[in-house]
Amino acid sequence: MGVFEWIRLIVGGVFLISGLATFFTEIFGVFHFRYVLNRMHATAMGDTLGISSCMVGLMIFSGWNFTTLKLLLVVVFLWFASPVSSHVLARLEVATNENLEDHCTVYPELKMLEEELAAAADPAKQADPASSDQTKA
User: Fold this and answer.
1) The domain containing residue 122 runs over which residues?
2) Is 51 in contact with 19 (CB distance < 8 Å)?
3) φ and ψ of 63, to 5 deg
4) Across 124-136, average pLDDT
């Protein structure tokens, strides 16, 4: 076994082990979080990163051939399918959950959220609103 094969073995093994570690972290998130959107976030991120990492490790083990192309196409498909399916499930949960306010902040209009984010981004307005009004006058 030459040096190149050892490097391929080590790099591929690192990708496979990191993918498995991501899967175990994902499993912990699924059983640790209580709310469905938190669980879904943990699984969606874990699936996308874990499967991609494992597939890259398998591509490195396989070398450059038709199987590598197939694995790459699976990774690309998962990168598109996983976020879309997670988004659809999140929209379904938001549309059907009657007790959504118990788990997160609900804004009736997007403008209210934008104003709150703008106020949080500008610490001068938050600290002393009267002084900022005087400087404008």
Assistant:
1) 107-137
2) yes
3) 85, -170
4) 54
